[in-house]
Design a protein that fits this description.
Length: 145
C-alpha cells in the first residue's frame, strides 16, 4: 500500500488516533491512518487522547472499523442498454431529483454518488428495465472513511 496515497484519501479533518497500544489498533482506521502520515504533513486532526480508552478496543466511541468498500462510478452502459424512451425517462427523472450537473457527473463517473443517490439511481434504472443487479461502468475499492 502506498502510504502517501492512503493518507491523502482520508477526508479533510478526519480524526487520527495515536493510541498504538490499543487492543483494536490493527482494525481501527483512525490508527492505521496515523501510521501512514507522511513527514511533510504539517497539520493533522487527532482524537483527544484523554477521551480514548485503549483497553476498550472496538467498543471505544471513536473506533472506526478499517473495512474496504466497493464504490461504483458511472452508469452509461446500463443506460445505453435501455430503450430510447426508457433512457429518456430515467434521464429526466434523475435530473429532476438531483440536478443537471450532478446527474451528468454521476452518469459519466466523474463524481462519487452518495449512498442515498446511489439507491435512487439503482431503483430508477430497475423501474425502467435495467436488470438486477445494476452494473456500473467502473468500481473503485477504498476504505469506508
Amino acid at each position: 500500500m502506498n502510504n502517501k496515497t492512503f493518507s491523502q484519501k482520508a477526508p479533510c479533518g478526519y480524526g487520527h488516533c495515536f493510541h498504538s497500544e490499543c487492543i483494536a489498533a490493527n482494525q481501527c482506521l483512525r490508527n492505521l491512518a496515523t501510521q501512514t502520515i507522511s513527514s511533510d504533513e504539517v497539520n493533522v486532526t487527532i482524537i483527544n487522547p484523554a477521551l480514548v480508552r485503549p483497553d476498550n478496543g472496538s467498543t471505544c466511541p471513536y473506533f472506526h472499523e478499517a473495512k474496504r468498500i466497493r464504490i461504483p462510478y458511472g452508469f452509461k452502459r446500463t443506460l445505453n442498454n435501455l430503450t430510447r424512451a426508457d433512457a429518456a425517462t430515467v434521464r429526466s427523472s434523475l435530473i429532476a431529483k438531483f440536478s443537471y450537473k450532478a446527474y451528468y457527473n454521476y452518469l459519466n463517473g466523474t463524481r462519487r454518488m452518495p449512498e442515498d443517490r446511489l439507491e435512487t439511481v439503482i431503483k430508477t434504472l430497475q423501474k425502467h428495465g435495467a436488470s438486477a443487479p445494476v452494473e456500473f461502468d467502473r468500481y473503485e475499492e477504498n476504505f469506508d472513511w
